Sequence to fold (264 residues):
Amino acid sequence: MLAAHGGRILAGGTDFFPRLGETPVRGPIVDISGLKDLSDISVTPEEVRIGACTTWRTVANAALPRCFDALKAAACEVGSIQIQNTGTVGGNLCNASPAADGVPPLLVLDADVELTSHRGTRRLPLRDFMTSYRKTALRADEILTGVIVPRTIDGPSVFMKLGARRYLVISISMVAAIVEADANQKITQVRVAVGACSAVAQRLPTLEDQLRGAPARPGLGALVALDHLSLLSPVDDLRGTAAYRLHATLTLVRRALEACAMKA
Fold:
C-alpha cells in the first residue's frame, strides 16, 4: 500500500492526532496497530527484540536484563498512564523529537532499528536513524517494524529526566547511562547519552573514553566536566535557557554515573 499509494503510518496515535490540531486528516493512512506480530518482546542470549507496536506500559512491565532498567524507567515517564498504555516504541522513534524519552536509553544500549518495505528489510543503528530535528532515515515505503538490542553490555543502567514539573512534562534535559565493571570494580564499558539538548539525542564518546578503566565507586561523577558536553547544542526556549540546560545536564550526568557506580 505504501509503495503504490504512499501514506502516513498510524499505530498508537498519541502524537499523530494531537499534531493535527484542528486540521482534518488528509491523504491515505496506513493503520498498523492491528499487527500483533509487531507488539511483543523477545529475548535470546544474543539480542532483545522489541516490536515497533509494543506499548511503553509493556516495556515497563517486561522482565528484561538490568541494562534495560533505564529504558523501563523512561517508559514510566512517557506522557500519562493512558499514553503509556497506547503509545508505541516505534512511534516514539519515528516522531524523532529531541525530547523523546525512549531515545537516550536505547542509544546507550547500542540499539538498531529494523526497517521493512515491499523490497525487503534493512537494519540501521538508531544513532543513524534520526538525522535531524523530527527527521529520520525512514523511506516513504518503509515501516519501522522493530528495535533490536545486541546483548553486548551487562551492567546497571539509570535514566534521569529534568522537567518543569514531576509528571506529564517535556524534558529540559534527560540522561541515560550504563556502567559495566569487572571483578576488581574497574569500568570495562560505560555509555552515556543526553536528550533534549541538541537536534537529536546523542552519546558522549569523549566522556566514555575517559571513564573506561576508572573505579566504579562513589565519586565517579566528579570526573565529568563541562568539556565532556561539547557535542551538545542546547537552545533557549520557554522551558529553559541554553546555559541552564547545559549546567543541568552536567548535574544529571554526574548523578546518573554515581547511581550506576553504586549499583555496580
Observations:
- The CA atoms of residues 82 and 170 lie 16 Å apart.
- The first helix runs from residue 2 to 5.
- DSSP finds ten helices and 13 strands in the chain.
